[in-house]
Write a sequence for this structure.
């Protein structure tokens, strides 16, 4: 079963783009959600200081060093007004190990777990590899999975005699769409999950990256003690390669997650934990907010360019750093071939929608995702290249 896991398509595009760059071709990276910026200066200084002091940076407790877990708990109090015991915080090797630990602790083989029809592909890939039945749920016209849609699925399964849902996994801000749920929408999902014995796994990796027209980013922990929250230092904190994240577990899953972490991962890299602790300090905030301001500028560059190209079927990107577009009305029916052609002909790297849409829906074949977390000049140059190519494409379509 595990040998049949699909590839993570964006990483395939990254590898192809890297091969072209090694051959001397200029590539405009609009494919991967990797900030152009480095880890915060305070994080780098903390690690350098630890190395200079002779700190061995050895193993830590599996759930992470206490000061980091306490700082994460303090962040929830400062940002959301939620008191989170440090004992429920588990430091992980990025959000990816957080998903694996959470799914192993919470679900058994054959359990039914829901995800939005359009969502981060690793949810379904990991779940299916673990023998979990993935249940794709439709979203509304704004790409949102609402409490009403979840209730409809719960009732339909009950009437049909199907096994009840054991979990729901989604993100807000969402990947690939950038769509954000309002606090009331998060509240509604939490209530529906709690009422029906569904574990709500809230992926909040893009919290901190939202724009002036966005609703407030609410954590599921504001509304439910049963929710499981997963987050990371990769996106807002610009620390992708440091492989450091965290999860907040419900009390009843916390011990199991810790034991799984001990056996599967030992502990997250200690140097990364020290960097993460420094990144959470108030002194790092201005630098991080400067990145978000750049993302907002980049978002406008992409939206303006798409509008000039006549592309208007765009998801409402209120957060994260992606624009998700549907090109079906222009005759695009194979997003993978479309993206490969762009990369080969003009060096613009995009991610095909088949990475995010549920297989067999037919939607991913006409959709693409553009990432705008690079340098503004690079985003402008990439969109200029894309616009010129698009004009020729329309002329031959």
């Amino acid at each position: 079963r595990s040998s049949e896991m699909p590839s993570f398509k964006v990483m395939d595009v990254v590898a192809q783009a890297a091969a072209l760059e090694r051959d001397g071709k200029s590539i405009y990276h609009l494919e991967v959600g990797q900030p152009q910026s480095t880890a915060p200066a305070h994080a780098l200084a903390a690690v350098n200081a630890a190395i200079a002091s002779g700190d061995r940076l050895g193993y830590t407790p599996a759930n992470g060093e206490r000061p980091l877990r306490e700082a994460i708990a303090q962040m929830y109090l400062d940002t959301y007004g939620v008191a989170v015991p440090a004992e429920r915080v588990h430091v992980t090797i990025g959000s990816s190990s957080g998903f694996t630990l959470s799914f192993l602790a919470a679900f058994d083989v054959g359990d039914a777990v829901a995800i939005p029809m359009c969502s981060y592909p690793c949810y379904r890939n990991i779940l299916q590899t673990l023998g979990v039945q993935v249940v794709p749920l439709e979203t509304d016209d704004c790409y949102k999975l609402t409490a009403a849609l979840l209730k409809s699925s719960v009732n339909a399964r009950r009437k049909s005699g199907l096994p009840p849902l054991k979990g729901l996994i989604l993100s807000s801000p969402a990947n690939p769409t950038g769509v954000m749920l309002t606090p009331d929408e998060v509240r509604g999902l939490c209530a529906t999950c709690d009422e029906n014995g569904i574990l709500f796994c809230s992926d909040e990796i893009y919290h901190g990256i939202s724009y002036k027209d966005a609703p407030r980013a609410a954590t599921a922990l504001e509304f439910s003690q049963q929710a499981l929250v997963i987050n990371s230092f990769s996106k807002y904190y610009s620390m992708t390669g440091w492989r450091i994240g965290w999860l907040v577990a419900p009390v009843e899953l916390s011990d199991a997650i810790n034991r799984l972490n001990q056996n599967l991962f030992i502990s997250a890299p200690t140097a990364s934990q020290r960097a993460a602790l420094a990144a959470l300090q108030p002194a790092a905030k201005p630098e991080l907010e400067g990145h978000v301001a750049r993302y907002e500028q980049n978002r406008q560059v992409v939206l303006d360019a798409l509008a000039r190209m006549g592309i208007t079927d765009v998801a409402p990107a209120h957060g994260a750093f992606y624009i998700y577009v549907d090109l079906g009305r222009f005759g695009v029916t194979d997003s993978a071939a479309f993206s490969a052609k762009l990369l080969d002909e003009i060096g613009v790297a995009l991610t095909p929608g088949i990475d995010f849409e549920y297989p067999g829906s037919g939607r991913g074949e006409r959709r693409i995702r553009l990432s705008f977390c690079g340098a503004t000049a690079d985003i402008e140059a990439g969109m200029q290249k894309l616009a010129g190519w698009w004009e020729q494409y329309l002329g031959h379509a």
